[in-house]
């Protein structure tokens, strides 16, 4: 129903209730002129007179009484629905749809979601992790996470932290196969390749050369479309791999993985949280966004400094390369 018709019917019903157009206008926060125009538009649209008018009062015609009896239940239901939505917008409760990439993202999202559910147990998260880029509006997304900015129109994107791509090996691999000393030497090593779940194609490694990030082709000894399994293959010494900082940082800091060729670590991409206009968001969505920014903004858990990377590489090469 167009909003002008809804306003006209509401004005009609309030006038019938109060017996005065002026009082009805005041009750709805309208000017008497606007209320009179709304009522006149409704009568013109219906083709009947709804009120008998005198200088002092207004009373329903027979048609007006019939229309009031027929429209009042629907009008009351509509007003109750509007009030319910207004109240839910201010409360920390209700459903919330969250999307993000399947690859790499569980270690980032789950601790955040775990904390949020503890703070707001009446919120009902609906999480969908998928590497495809869906339609933000059609998929009814409240909050999304992406590697890179969202191209969707009308979506706000906030950068959280850089996404590093780090060539890694386990101590067991280095002890058996040695380590490449330059990018060209990768051709002589067992490398892992990641196969895009969306296209089915293997994705070249991305490495930094000077100030540019370029593609580095490798001949794969193993292929995966899941970074968790790929990381396990690296930890068990089967291959070298280009892993994200999300997957590799904790293992590098614990000495379970050794970063290699660290001057070539690519970090031009970032993780973003995205959402619609904050003015129209329910409180539960605003609360989740605020927590995401507080916990993940400039987060160092998944990012290693250049000094950390160089030190870990030097230590790993010295300790684990065959003598």
Could you walk me through the main structural features you see in this protein, from its secondary elements to its overall organization?
The protein is of the alpha+beta class. Helix 1 (3-18) packs across helix 3 (32-46), helix 2 (21-27) crosses helix 3 (32-46) and helix 6 (171-177) crosses helix 10 (306-320). Helix 5 links the parallel strand 3 and strand 4 (123-129). The chain starts with a helix and ends with a helix. The longest helix has 29 residues, at 62-90. The protein has 10 helices and 14 strands. Strands 3, 4, 5, 6, 12, 13 and 14 form a 7-stranded mixed β-sheet that branches. A 3-stranded mixed β-sheet has the order 8-7-11, with helices on one face. A two-stranded antiparallel sheet has the order 1-2. It is 42% helix and 24% strand. The chain has 3 domains: 3-90, Arc Repressor Mutant, subunit A (Orthogonal Bundle), CATH 1.10.10; 99-161 and 270-296, 3-Layer(aba) Sandwich (D-Maltodextrin-Binding Protein, domain 2); 163-269 and 302-320, 3-Layer(aba) Sandwich (D-Maltodextrin-Binding Protein, domain 2).
């Amino acid at each position: 129903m167009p909003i002008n018709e809804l306003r006209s019917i509401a004005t009609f019903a309030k006038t019938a209730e109060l017996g005065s157009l002026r009082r009805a206008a005041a009750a709805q926060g309208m000017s008497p002129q606007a209320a009179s125009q709304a009522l006149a538009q409704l009568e013109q649209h219906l083709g009947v007179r709804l009120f008998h008018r005198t200088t002092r009062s207004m009373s329903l015609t027979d048609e007006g009484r019939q229309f009031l009896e027929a429209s009042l239940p629907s009008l009351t239901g509509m007003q109750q629905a509007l009030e319910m939505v207004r109240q839910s917008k201010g409360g920390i409760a209700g459903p919330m749809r969250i999307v993000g990439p399947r690859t790499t993202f569980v270690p980032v999202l789950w601790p955040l979601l775990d904390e949020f559910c503890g703070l707001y147990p009446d919120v009902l998260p609906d999480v969908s992790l998928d590497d495809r880029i869906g339609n933000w509006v059609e998929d009814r997304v409240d909050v999304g996470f992406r590697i890179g900015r969202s191209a969707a129109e009308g979506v706000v994107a906030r950068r959280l932290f850089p996404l590093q791509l780090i060539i890694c090996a386990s101590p067991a691999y280095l002890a058996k196969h040695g380590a490449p000393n330059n990018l060209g030497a990768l051709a002589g090593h067992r490398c892992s390749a990641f196969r895009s779940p969306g296209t089915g194609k293997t994705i070249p490694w991305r490495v930094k050369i000077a100030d540019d990030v370029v593609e580095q082709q490798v001949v794969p000894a193993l292929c995966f479309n899941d970074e968790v399994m790929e990381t396990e293959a690296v930890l068990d010494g089967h291959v070298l791999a280009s892993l994200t900082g999300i997957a590799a940082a904790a293992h590098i800091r614990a000495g379970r993985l050794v970063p290699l060729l660290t001057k070539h670590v690519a970090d031009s991409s970032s993780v973003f949280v995205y959402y619609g206009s904050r003015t129209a968001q329910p409180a539960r969505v605003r609360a989740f966004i605020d927590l995401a920014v507080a916990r993940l903004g400039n987060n160092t858990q998944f990012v290693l400094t250049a000094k950390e990377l160089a030190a870990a590489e030097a230590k790993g090469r010295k300790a684990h390369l065959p003598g």
